[in-house]
Design brief:
The protein is of the alpha+beta class and 952 residues long. The protein contains 26 helices and 32 strands. Strands 3, 6, 7, 8, 11, 14, 15, 16 and 17 form a nine-stranded mixed beta sheet that branches. Strands 21, 25, 26, 27, 28, 29, 30, 31 and 32 form a nine-stranded antiparallel beta sheet that branches. The two termini are 45 Å apart.
């Protein structure tokens, strides 16, 4: 490796301000920053007086501050006191002593502790304005937000409604869709108008200019400052918001824990810097989290691409941001300049397109600048006023977008200076703004490009903002870096290349087909995506990759060397560990060990000639995750899957509701109305106006029902936290057996009556260790009355690492059905608590559910399950795959080991995957056969993140 170039001595002078530079790249950087080459040719549509997006910024506004090495705790005040939290004071927090989030009055004067908030101007309890009644609001919200009925269909509905009311001499609530839309548009709460500005190329024009040089590019946005003020004032977020940075510890061990964004070191360090200004003491630090990603809404009718820009704040907790409750807001659509193939790769067009991105962001975000220097007074959702100081926070983006945001060359790392052909260099320094600016001032453009991976002609938008270092602000991206990138695009593809390299195409195709059959044969499970034709399809989504991760490891075991299996095990354990809702110091140590195993075992792909090296930015990013967790909290609060899912609500669905002609304007209006309805609902709920009646009553009734057979297998749940609760389906099966004897015949279990009696003995004499057969029948007779049979039960449990409600609750459905969706029987497995004193699999057994039933004996209601037990193989998980192994259990006389258990002992569903070994799976094996056709099974801890946390 040759040495990087030394500082040159030549001088270049700016013609406009006469400042000199040592090379051309320094002059270019200065010209873009101080004498921009773009021009704004139209003012914002709301005539708000927003200035030039590329206006020159004073040196003080772009000042930067030194920061410690990422991942190291900064020094703190000696006077920090511990605040105990959690049940039994199991945790304690050290809160930042300077930025304390002290409530104040509307003038910014701090209030004594315990002072109640100033009462807002009261509104009458029947003030539904701009709606006339609750029914009017509920109807508008239901039709526009949930049903999303077209205007034409809405008119038809209203006409039918009007016809039904003619005899009564009454009128429908709305006479037409136009009246409903006008009413929604009159909503004042949460109203942030859309604005636009137009930019065109203002550089050197060629003799024969190409069209893109004369085109005008519209950028639409909403004032992010107003958006953030609305988020801070949202009463829905009042109890799900952190007002000050903190460090959280376990009380017993005093070990550090990371969870929400404000628990990370970055927010604490920013608070340290801000607190140096005495005027900022007592304020709330509000980090501005941004995210952008191009998306395609329609391919069949032409390539319709949009470039949405999203915003969130670091104060709201991860559960809110992930639960899609307006914790992430659409604030803009960026321009996407296009040209012909002939000019698409020319330097001037590529430079224009990149700098347009940064200049647009600088313009959109400029309203935050005053609040980054001097605190402003803002009303919060708990009705208190507080002083607020803003700062740019992490940027959520995939790798391509990260390269654009940080102005680096592709295939380089946006966070460190490791060479692109040696990304695994452990001694590489972290990038930082000061170092980059020094390099740009000293070296030529080609040296910056080739030796440091810097695009020296570009100016990051963060350079115009106080305390902003773009290299430090790149957030971890689980979806694109890890799930889509390292797993699907790298490891899975390498397995196929290995098989072809080792066995030749013909034999490799046979093995790949068997891997597909193994994946197809996996039993159903709540939330598990099916691959009925295998995994060979062209358009892969993030959900497809996540689904494949759950079942891929057992499918390749036996067809590839053990080193490859160990590589996948380490990779999956890394993915599932960093996805946890809370991470501890021990977890981060485990992360180091897992990553070391991954690096060690992946060498098999190099030694077999599958890959030449591992200088892959997406895999390299795994090296930075420990530091990123320490800086920003757990990664699941900043993953690009959040913005990807926001695409559906904010871009794709609104696009489908347009007439496709100049669709963007219609999409802006749709999003504005959706936000108004959401804000109005939050306002009405905060005033207690949506309790008990009308549509909400029906929703509450549906939500409280035990189970709805038409639902899917799982859902997120809003409600109080409980560790686990299981209940039977709402409706019993009327065409099934009605007595124990009849059920014994139906299930072919001759001794079912004795199993029920043994169950009753356990219920009536829980402390008696005698064999049930030794207890006289007079003391515990059997049961011969009526029973009710159910095809399913629901398990509701605390699973914040998976898709869940704001409280972290998740519900799944355990199916026990003789026929399921015309594909044969379905009898799910479940974890059953057998020893509450032990943790993980040592305190649980796996059982297959054969029937859910209930009966009433002695005035007591008994909800039960008939189960077949599985025996664990060994006293620890399998050393190769990391999963426990089980097999169907038999009694000493070789009969199925069956039991009747109370459903309260069931924790949640369990997923088993056959131990396929080296044998090929017969083509006729279907998912419904999976639990009957094999001798041994892996307990799939990768079925979901909660399973990974309990099946250890």
């Amino acid at each position: 490796m040759h040495a990087r170039p030394m500082v040159g001595l030549s001088r270049y002078v700016c013609k406009q301000c006469k400042r000199s530079f040592r090379n051309r790249s320094g002059l270019t950087q200065h010209t873009h920053a101080r004498h921009p080459r773009f021009s704004t040719i139209s003012a914002p549509t709301d005539n708000s007086g927003v200035g030039d997006p590329l206006a020159e910024v004073g040196d003080d506004a772009a000042a930067d501050f030194p920061h410690p090495e990422p991942g190291l705790d900064a020094e703190t005040d000696d006077n920090i006191h511990a605040v105990f939290i959690g049940p039994g004071d199991s945790l304690f927090r050290n809160y930042h002593p300077g930025l304390t989030g002290q409530p104040c009055n509307a003038n910014g004067d701090f209030l004594p502790d315990g002072t109640q908030p100033e009462p807002r101007q009261p509104k009458p309890p029947d003030d539904w304005s701009p709606y006339n009644s609750r029914l009017e609001f509920e109807l508008a919200d239901f039709i526009y937000t949930r049903n999303q009925m077209s205007a034409a269909n809405l008119n038809i509905l209203l006409e039918l409604w009007a016809a039904s009311l003619v005899e009564a001499g009454a009128n429908p609530i709305f006479s037409s869709y136009k009246e409903m839309y006008r009413t929604i548009d009159k909503t004042e709460v949460g109203d942030v108008k859309w604005q636009s500005f137009t930019v065109k190329y203002a550089g050197d024009v060629e003799t024969d200019p190409v069209p893109w040089m004369h085109d005008e590019y519209d950028i639409w946005f909403r004032d992010p400052h107003e958006v953030v003020q609305n988020m801070l004032a949202n009463p829905e977020f009042a109890k799900e918001m952190d007002y000050r940075p903190f460090r959280e510890y376990d009380t017993k061990s005093s070990t550090r824990r990371w969870q929400d964004f404000m628990s990370g070191d970055w927010a604490w360090r920013q608070a340290d810097i801000i607190a140096q200004d005495p005027d900022c003491l007592g304020s709330v630090f509000v980090p501005i989290i941004l995210g952008s990603d191009k998306t395609t809404v329609s391919v069949a009718t032409g390539q319709n691409d949009y470039y949405p820009l999203y915003l969130s704040i670091g104060n709201i907790r991860n559960n809110v941001r992930r639960a899609h409750r307006n914790g992430v807001v659409l604030i803009g659509f960026l321009a996407m300049p296009k040209t012909t193939r002939e000019h698409a790769n020319k330097d001037n067009f590529r430079k224009f397109r990149r700098q347009l991105f940064h200049s647009s962001l600088g313009r959109i975000l400029k309203t935050f600048k005053p609040g980054m220097v001097k605190p402003e007074v803002v009303l919060f959702g708990d009705d208190h006023y507080r002083r607020v100081v803003y700062g740019l926070g992490p940027y959520i983006a995939d790798y391509e977008e990260q390269a654009l945001v940080t102005c680096i060359v592709r295939n380089w790392c946006p966070r460190c200076l490791a060479y692109r052909n040696n990304l695994d260099d452990d001694n590489a320094l972290h990038r930082c703004r000061d170092h980059a600016e020094m390099l740009i001032a000293e070296f030529a453009l080609d040296a910056l490009w080739n030796e440091y991976g810097i695009v020296g002609e570009l100016v990051p938008f963060t350079n115009d903002f106080l305390r902003a270092d773009i290299y430090e602000l790149i957030a971890p991206d689980l979806l694109h870096q890890i799930i889509k990138g390292a797993f699907k695009d790298h490891l899975v593809e390498w397995v196929e290349k290995y098989l072809r390299h080792t066995h030749g195409d013909a034999r490799a195709n046979e093995i790949l087909d068997d891997i597909d059959r193994r994946i197809v044969a996996v039993a159903p499970f709540p939330g598990l995506r099916r691959f009925p034709q295998g995994r060979h399809f062209k358009q892969w989504t993030g959900d497809d990759s996540k689904a494949l991760m759950k079942v891929y490891l057992p499918a390749i075991e036996g067809h590839v060397p053990q080193e490859i299996v160990r590589t996948f095990r380490a990779f999956l354990e890394f993915c599932y560990l960093v996805r946890r809702n809370v991470l501890t110091e021990k977890d981060l140590d485990d992360l180091d060990e897992i990553l070391a195993r991954f690096y060690r075992y992946r060498e098999v792909f190099k030694t077999t000639g599958i890959v030449a090296n591992f200088s892959l930015p997406r895999q390299h990013a795994m090296k930075h995750y420990k530091q990123l967790i320490q800086l920003f909290g757990v990664p699941n609060g900043l993953c690009s899957s959040i913005t990807e899912s926001k695409h559906v609500k904010a871009v794709k669905k609104p696009y489908r509701r347009t007439n496709k002609y100049h669709a963007l304007g219609q999409m802006l209006l749709i999003n504005q109305r959706l936000d108004k309805l959401a804000t109005a609902r939050a306002d009405f709920e905060s005033r207690g106006m949506l309790e008990g009646t009308c549509l909400s009553t029906l929703e509450d009734t549906l939500a409280s029902a035990s189970i709805d057979e038409s639902r899917g297998d799982y859902e997120d749940v809003n409600g109080l936290r409980v560790e686990a609760h299981v209940c039977l389906a709402r409706s019993r099966q009327r065409n099934r057996a009605a007595t124990i004897v009849a059920l014994a015949d139906e299930l072919h279990i001759p001794n079912l009556s004795e199993l029920v009696r043994a169950f009753l003995v356990g219920q009536l004499y829980p402390d008696d260790n005698h064999d049930p057969a030794d207890i006289p029948h007079l003391e515990c007779p059997g049961y011969e009355g009526k029973i009710s049979i159910y095809n399913s039960a629901s398990s509701t449990f605390y699973a914040p690492s998976d898709l869940s409600g704001v409280g972290g609750m998740h519900r799944e459905y355990i199916r026990v059905a003789p026929t399921w969706r015309q594909e044969g029987p379905r009898y799910d497995c479940a974890f059953v608590i057998t020893d509450p004193e032990l943790e993980g699999m040592r305190g649980m057994d796996v059982a297959r559910m054969l029937c859910f039933f209930s009966f009433k004996a002695g005035g007591v209601f008994y909800p039960c399950a008939i189960v077949r037990w599985f025996d664990r193989l060994g006293d620890a998980p399998d050393e190769l795959t990391g999963m426990w192994m089980v097999r169907p259990s038999f009694t000493p006389n070789h009969q199925r080991n069956l039991a009747v258990i109370h459903i309260d002992t069931i924790f949640r569903a369990a997923h088993l995957i056959p131990i396929y070994g080296r044998e090929f799976v017969p083509r006729e094996i279907a998912p419904c056969h999976s639990y009957d056709a094999f001798y041994g099974y892996y307990v799939n801890k990768f079925a979901d993140h909660h399973a990974f946390e309990i099946a250890y």
